[in-house]
Q: What sequence folds into this?
């Protein structure tokens, strides 16, 4: 958490007169959108307006959250987004550890004169004016709640804040089943429910939103799932042609990698997908126990994340990337 002196200084910055923006990472997920909107609604409860800016669009299954449709997507309004960041007095940076993680917003953030406040749970954060970094906490949404507590503003938590923060914690913990989910996480969830979050409604709005195209893609990859390393590693993949054939939309493959990890005996799953427009391979890693996919991805696939959940990227072809992965994983001693 921020030090008491930092909290006092941050509090002096949070005034209705100051221009405040909230940024999150490229390809925003539930925790990114939930923490950003949760913080926005908290500031609104204090009488302070803040603008949420994301680098690119996010999945439809997250757009039910209060004011999600008012999020500014920089891809669509670059000049407006640039001006807001450039003129901001305060810039909250949520769920990313470096400007390089926020796409086109990265250079704008680096050159901005406003005070930069980081709240994030990824490893190796870069330099910001104020840093609240904790890699043990499973979701940035939980950290935003701790921040609200530290500001002695828990009484301001309302239904809008509760719904957004609940959503981010739920999605980033895999429905509260990842080992990083702590007793503190569940206590916060209980508090959010008491403040208006409806677990059944949030779960339905977020996860019960399958399209036919998503289910057809899922059936396709499950029909050819491959295991390696004596059954300890699961491999899933999709080609660009397949994405086009089944009418892929952003968010359709969310959670696919977890199906590989659900196989009995599997300790690590990897999902490889050709980008729809550019020539690179997007990779998602998940693991159990002490298999550190963060370090694995950093070392071999230009990525990173958490011990049991990370992402990566490859400029090789899909087949070459999978073959490279198989070679690296065979040499991995932690499996």
A:
């Amino acid at each position: 958490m921020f030090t008491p002196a930092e909290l006092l200084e941050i509090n002096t910055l949070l005034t209705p007169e100051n221009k405040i923006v909230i940024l999150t990472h490229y390809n925003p997920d539930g925790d990114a959108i939930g923490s950003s909107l949760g913080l926005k609604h908290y500031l609104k409860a204090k009488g302070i307006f803040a603008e949420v800016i994301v680098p690119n669009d996010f999945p439809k299954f997250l757009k039910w959250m209060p004011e999600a449709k008012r999020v500014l997507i920089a891809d669509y309004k670059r000049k407006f987004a640039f001006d807001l960041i450039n003129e901001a007095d305060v810039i909250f940076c949520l769920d990313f550890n470096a400007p390089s993680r926020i796409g086109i917003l990265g250079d704008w953030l680096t050159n901005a004169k406003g005070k930069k406040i980081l709240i994030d749970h990824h490893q190796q954060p870069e330099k910001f004016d104020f840093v609240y970094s904790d890699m043990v906490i499973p979701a940035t949404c939980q950290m935003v709640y701790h921040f609200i507590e530290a500001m002695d503003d828990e009484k301001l938590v309302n239904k809008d804040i509760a719904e957004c923060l609940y959503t981010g914690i739920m999605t980033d913990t895999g429905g509260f089943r990842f080992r990083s989910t702590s007793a503190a996480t569940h206590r916060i969830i209980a508090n959010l429910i008491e403040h208006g979050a409806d677990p059944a409604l949030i779960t339905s709005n977020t996860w019960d939103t399958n399209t036919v195209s998503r289910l057809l893609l899922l059936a396709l990859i499950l029909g050819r799932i491959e295991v390696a390393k004596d059954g300890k590693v699961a491999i899933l993949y999709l080609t660009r042609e397949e994405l086009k054939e089944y009418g892929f939309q952003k968010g359709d493959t969310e959670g696919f990698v977890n199906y590989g990890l659900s196989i009995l005996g599997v300790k690590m799953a990897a999902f490889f997908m050709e980008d729809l427009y550019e020539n690179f391979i997007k990779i998602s890693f998940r693991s159990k126990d002490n298999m550190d996919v963060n370090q694995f991805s950093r070392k071999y696939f230009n990525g990173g994340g958490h011990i049991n959940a990370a992402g990566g990227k490859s400029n090789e072809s899909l087949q070459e990337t999978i073959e490279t992965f198989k070679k690296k994983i065979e040499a991995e001693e932690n499996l």
The chain has a mean pLDDT of 95. Residues 30-45 form the longest helix (16 residues).
